[in-house]
């Protein structure tokens, strides 16, 4: 571009536009190339997505349960393990075909809201209260979980809570209520809300010698126990029921209903139920099948 | 230095009909931040003689050169080329700066870059590269990384690179002001060789001795104005204006 | 520390035995991060060049914004990409969630600002040095940009390595959009997070050592390429 004085100015307008156009084209090409390279799951790959919880996954149950199912049905099972709240959200959004968690009220709401087809019992285990070997709150051997929690509160001993709205967390809150203890007042003091999964919370408990509520399976499998020991168990209220629900294809047409239902049916079948009972951690049975037809 | 002398008075413009004027400035001025850096510059440049723009520091020599080369625009007046392609075509002109701008690649690659972006025919490039390297005395350093060369060597490279594209006009802005005497001599030798090859050169300097050694024609610039414009012999033997006289006699001008 | 020693031993054992599980997550991690960095470079470098060399109104604001995006929290990016790719979201019909593709998308978004911002700075500095000379050669703007990109290649390589470092180190984004699914979207960092939550600290740390070694190896490779080239 030459101005009236015959002086050259660096030509910008046209060449810049050309460069932007070339850049855009390159961008699209690169994206296509990358996507085709990444494109996983070749057409023949059959799988369902199951939203479950970290406690279930950390127990190692799926490593034992899924291979026989896949072998029999040819359907792969992709487990996304997150907190119960997040798992339910995933299923509500239609990002999971099957929901497999352990908080009955939330599960029933899920079905009532129309996102789930039907809820079935699958298995149960229980929660336990673990704490430092020295047990300053003196709860060892108690049968009353609420009383144990009350003792911990009275002694002002550190307690690590999931604090993440998970099944475990809701059970914990239920027990505090039964013990008539208001833990929100003590939050940050002796009541430590980690906002994390069971494993992370156990790491915290192990690190600061705190008490915590854990499902038995995760506890058995946990490798960083430190000074922690199982102190309280057996209270009826520590019962932990697992339920399974198929995501409703009426809300999310893309859901793999047939394959998802096959998985549910298998888990509830004699074969599936036996596989659940057969799973042990350190010689101990971790889950008890109870789908009850 | 041949006999076809062209003298152009300051403020008027007259030239002998036998000369081809490549470039004409008419009342060209440059004003920045309320200051007049160049005022009423009227000049005509032919296509043969080595023109030296001479003057003390701060006279506006570099600005005048950049004005001619099209790097900046005048705020008043005109700068006109005999043929527009001389201004816009990459092979029309080139410039060597006070501090050489050297690319982060080998000596040869620097020259090849200029040949490539200025559109020199692919077949002609190897020969031009060789000639340029020889002119600069850098044939032995062709594959060396150009950034590790000494200041003098880098300036020789810059000059060879600017000349390799065979421009119509080669501008040089105080090419030796940052060099030691030995390097200065090398550059001046190159400049004389380039003059022999017939390339038109317009250079600036504040060095009186250098002007004496190289110039065919002198444009004496002082305080942003062309004080005097004549052939070299005339300028050094009989400078017309008092400022020119003072400068030639080595007396500093304020 | 017992755990530390045990971790080093685990790392060694995994590498020497070429543990199949380890190889699987290593290859996935590399695939995802390298693809993300490549995409980010292809988009980010021209973008950085554009902002560096082209004057336009509001440029200073764009530069500030670009620089700030370098500090994007990975978990936030993960959340945003999840919301985009979820079946309940605008791009849900492509079913990209919980796949390596989703992870690549999230990491590309994380790395893009780093490469663009560093490219911009590099080219802005080079422009100051070279602008007049390029103008003297009458080089058109696009060619000038390419020249500056080549001149700045060492700084730009470092920018790319910074981007790769960020991609291979982050866990927040890939965890949310990938789901840490075994054999599908489990990368080194999500595996480390998983083993930590299982309390298997030596294994987690061992995997960490393997990851660090990998990143060091790639950086060393890049440096040797630099050395080779700079000999010219």
Spans of at least 5 consecutive residues with low confidence of chain A: 1-23, 36-43
Number of strands of chain A: 12
Number of helices of chain A: 11
Q: How confident is the prediction overall: mean pLDDT of chain B?
A: 89
Helix share of residues of chain A?
A: 40-55%
Question: How would you describe the overall organization of this protein?
Answer:
The complex is a heterotrimer of chains A (293), B (254) and C (232). By secondary structure, chain A is an alpha/beta fold. Chain A has 2 domains: 47-125 and 240-289, Periplasmic binding protein-like II (D-Maltodextrin-Binding Protein, domain 2), CATH 3.40.190.10; 126-238, 3-Layer(aba) Sandwich (D-Maltodextrin-Binding Protein, domain 2). Chain A has helices spanning 13-38, 54-58, 61-73, 84-93, 104-112, 145-155, 167-178, 198-208, 216-221, 257-268, 270-278, and strands spanning 47-53, 76-82, 98-101, 116-132, 159-161, 191-193, 211-215, 228-232, 239-247, 280-281, 284-285, 288-289. In chain A, the strands form 2 sheets. In chain A, strands 1, 2, 3, 4, 5, 6, 7, 8, 9 and 12 form a 10-stranded mixed beta sheet that branches. In chain A, strand 10 and strand 11 (284-285) form a beta hairpin. Chain B has helices spanning 61-69, 84-88, 107-117, 125-136, 151-164, 181-196, 208-214, 232-237, 242-248; strands at 21-32, 35-46, 51-54, 76-81, 93-96, 169-173, 200-205, 217-222, 225-231. Chain B has one domain (21-248): P-loop containing nucleotide triphosphate hydrolases (Rossmann fold, 3-Layer(aba) Sandwich). Mean pLDDT of chain B is 89; it is low at 1-15. The longest helix of chain B has 16 residues, at 181-196. Chain C is mostly helical and 232 residues long. Chain C is 79% helix and 0% strand. The chains are: A alpha/beta (293), B alpha/beta (254), C mainly alpha (232). Chains in contact: A-B, A-C, B-C. Chain A binds chain C through residues 8, 10-12, 15-16, 18-20, 23, 26-27, 30-31, 34-35, 37-41, 49, 54, 58, 62-63, 78-82, 92-95, 196-200, 202-203, 206, 221-225, 252, 254, and chain C through 31, 35, 38-39, 42-43, 46-47, 50, 54, 86-89, 92-93, 95, 97-101, 104, 135, 138, 140-142, 145, 179-182, 184, 196-201.
């Amino acid at each position: 571009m030459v101005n009236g004085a015959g002086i050259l100015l660096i030509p910008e307008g046209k060449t810049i536009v050309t460069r932007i156009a070339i850049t855009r084209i390159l961008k699209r090409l690169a994206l296509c190339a990358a996507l085709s390279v990444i494109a996983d799951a070749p057409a023949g790959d059959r799988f369902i997505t199951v939203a479950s919880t970290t406690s279930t996954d950390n127990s190692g149950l799926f490593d034992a349960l899924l291979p026989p199912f896949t072998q029999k049905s040819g359907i792969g099972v992709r487990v996304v393990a997150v907190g119960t709240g997040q798992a339910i959200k995933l299923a509500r959004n239609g990002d999971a075909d099957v929901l497999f968690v352990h908080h009955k009220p939330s599960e029933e709401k899920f079905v009532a809201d129309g996102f789930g087809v039907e809820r079935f019992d699958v298995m149960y285990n229980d929660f336990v209260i673990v704490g430092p070997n020295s047990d300053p709150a003196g709860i060892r051997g108690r049968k009353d979980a609420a009383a144990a929690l009350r003792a911990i509160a009275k002694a002002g001993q550190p307690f690590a809570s999931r604090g993440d709205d998970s099944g475990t967390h809701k059970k914990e809150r239920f027990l505090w209520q039964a013990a008539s203890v208001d833990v929100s007042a003590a939050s940050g003091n002796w009541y430590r809300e980690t906002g994390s999964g069971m494993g992370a919370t156990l790491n915290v408990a192990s690190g600061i010698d705190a008490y915590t509520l854990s499902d038995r399976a995760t506890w058995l499998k946990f490798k960083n126990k430190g000074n922690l020991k199982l102190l309280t168990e057996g209270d009826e209220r520590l019962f932990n029921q697992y339920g399974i629900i198929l995501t409703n294809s009426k809300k999310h047409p893309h859901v793999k209903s047939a394959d998802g239902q096959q998985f549910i049916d298998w888990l509830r079948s004699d074969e599936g139920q036996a596989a659940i009972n057969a799973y042990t951690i350190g010689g101990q049975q971790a889950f008890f099948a109870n789908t009850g037809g | 230095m041949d006999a076809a002398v062209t003298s152009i008075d300051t403020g008027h413009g007259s030239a002998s009909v036998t000369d081809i004027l490549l470039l004409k400035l008419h009342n060209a001025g440059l004003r920045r931040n309320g200051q007049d850096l160049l005022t009423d510059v009227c000049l005509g440049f032919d296509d043969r003689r080595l023109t030296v723009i001479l003057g003390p520091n701060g006279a506006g020599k570099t600005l005048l050169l950049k004005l001619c080369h099209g790097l900046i625009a005048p705020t008043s007046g005109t700068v006109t080329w005999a043929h527009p392609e001389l201004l816009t075509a990459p092979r029309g002109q080139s410039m060597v700066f006070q501090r050489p701008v050297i690319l982060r690649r080998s000596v040869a690659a620097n020259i090849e870059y200029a040949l490539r972006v200025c559109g020199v025919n692919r077949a002609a490039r190897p020969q031009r590269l060789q000639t340029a390297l020889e002119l600069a005395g850098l044939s032995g350093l062709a594959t060396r990384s150009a950034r590790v060369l000494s200041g003098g060597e880098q300036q020789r490279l810059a000059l060879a690179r600017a000349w390799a594209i065979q421009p119509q006009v080669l501008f040089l802005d105080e090419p030796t002001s940052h060099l030691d005497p030995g390097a200065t001599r090398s550059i001046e030798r190159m400049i004389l060789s380039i003059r022999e090859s017939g390339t038109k050169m317009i250079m600036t300097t504040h060095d009186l001795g250098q002007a004496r050694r190289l110039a065919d024609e002198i444009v004496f610039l002082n305080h942003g104005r062309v004080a005097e414009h004549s052939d070299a012999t005339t300028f050094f033997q009989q400078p017309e204006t008092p400022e020119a006289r003072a400068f030639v006699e080595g007396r500093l001008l304020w | 520390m017992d755990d530390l020693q045990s971790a080093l031993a685990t790392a060694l054992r995994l590498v020497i035995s070429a543990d199949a599980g380890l190889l699987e997550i290593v290859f996935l991690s590399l695939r995802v991060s390298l693809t993300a960095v490549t995409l980010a470079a292809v988009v980010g470098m021209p973008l950085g060049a554009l902002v560096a060399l082209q004057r336009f109104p509001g440029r200073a604001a764009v530069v500030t914004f670009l620089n700030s995006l370098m500090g994007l929290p990975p978990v936030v990016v993960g959340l945003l990409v999840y919301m985009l790719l979820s079946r309940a979201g605008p791009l849900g019909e492509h079913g990209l969630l919980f796949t390596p593709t989703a992870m690549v998308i999230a990491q590309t978004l994380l790395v893009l600002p780093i490469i663009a911002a560093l490219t911009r700075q590099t080219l802005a500095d080079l422009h100051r040095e070279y602008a007049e000379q390029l103008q003297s050669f009458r080089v058109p703007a696009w060619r000038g940009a390419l020249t500056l990109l080549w001149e700045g290649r060492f700084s730009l390589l470092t920018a790319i390595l910074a981007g790769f470092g960020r991609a291979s180190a982050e866990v927040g984004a890939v965890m949310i959009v990938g789901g840490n699914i075994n054999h599908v979207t489990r990368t080194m960092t999500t595996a480390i997070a998983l083993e930590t939550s299982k309390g298997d600290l030596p294994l987690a740390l061992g995997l960490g050592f393997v990851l660090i070694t990998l990143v060091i190896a790639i950086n060393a490779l890049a440096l040797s390429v630099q050395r080779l080239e700079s000999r010219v």
